[in-house]
Amino acid sequence: MIAFSTWAAFALLCLGMVLTPGPNMIYLVSRSICQGRLAGLISLGGVALGFFVYMLCAAFGITALLFAVPLAYDALHFGGAIYLAYLAWQALKPGGRAPFQVRDLPPDSPRRLFTMGFVTSLLNPKIAMLYMSLLPQFIDQQAGHVLEQSLILGATQIVVSVIGNAFFAITAGTIAGFLAKRPTWGQVQRYLMGTVLAALAVKIATDASR
Predict the structure, then answer these.
(1) Cα–Cα distance for residue pair 29/99, rounded to 1 Å
(2) Closest Cα to residue 120, out of 170, 53, 195?
(3) Which residue in 50, 49, 43, 51 sits closest to 26, CA to CA?
(4) Are 87 and 126 in contact (CB under 8 A)?
């Protein structure tokens, strides 16, 4: 089983990634503001299904890879560190886009909303890299049950992401109005999350090199 400290650290990382602007958040926020909260939540259902697909593929794939290739564990460690550093740069770079800079989206039917949420999730590189590079950092091979650990961590990511994105979908209009009057808050959020992700990248890379 996974140690509570390991699970809690992974949950916090997932929360940090939810708070970091990405395709899913930008789409859900834009959809909620343009078409209403219900549309945003329906789209979130599609996004969650995409998470579930990634979770199953990654859980079985990682399990097979770690048993077949002994060096794969170290490779995934360094891959995770590099990707976290990339996310940190995306948040900190000049001109980085805030998630509440709304795109103008035309109204869609519930079926299309769900489908577009699903497609947006599947095409989101941040989610793909989360499962393939970051999730293995929290798996303890010596504890055994690699598949079980992968599924628990994957389910944690889905729950944290759905709750976080549901909050943004429901409060999108209020938050967008608040940030429009106080643009400094959006910059603070970007720099804070970028710094946290950069620190995590350094920690993972340091641990992997030992």
Answers:
(1) 7
(2) 53
(3) 43
(4) yes
Measured over the CA atoms of residue 29, residue 31, residue 36 and residue 41, the dihedral's sign is negative
In tens digits, the chain (210 residues) has pLDDT values of 788 888 998 898 888 778 776 777 778 888 888 888 899 899 999 999 989 988 888 877 765 555 556 565 566 567 667 766 776 776 677 765 555 555 566 788 999 999 988 988 887 766 776 777 778 778 887 777 888 888 899 999 999 999 999 998 888 867 666 665 666 766 676 676 677 667 767 766 776 555
Alpha carbon 137 to its chain's center: 15
Q: Which residues of 117-142 are buried (b: 16+ CB within 10 A; e: fewer)?
A: bbebbbebebbbbbbbbbbbbbbeee
Q: How far is CA 65 from CA 1, 70, 72, 151, 210, in A?
A: 20, 8, 7, 15, 21
Tokens 């577009």 belong to which residue? 116
Rounded CA-CA distance 26/20 in Å is: 10
Q: How many CA atoms lie within 13 A of 76 on its CB side?
A: 23
- For residue 119, what are the CA distances in angstroms to 15, 24, 34, 40, 60? 22, 10, 19, 14, 22
**Single-letter amino acid code for the residue at 163:** I
Measured between alpha carbons, how far is 125 from 77 in angstroms, rounded to an integer? 17
In the chain, domain spans: 4-209
| CA 84/CA 97 separation, integer angstroms | 18
* pLDDT in the model for residue 181: 63
Considering the entire predicted model, what is its pTM?
0.70
The two structure tokens encoding residue 159: 């729950």
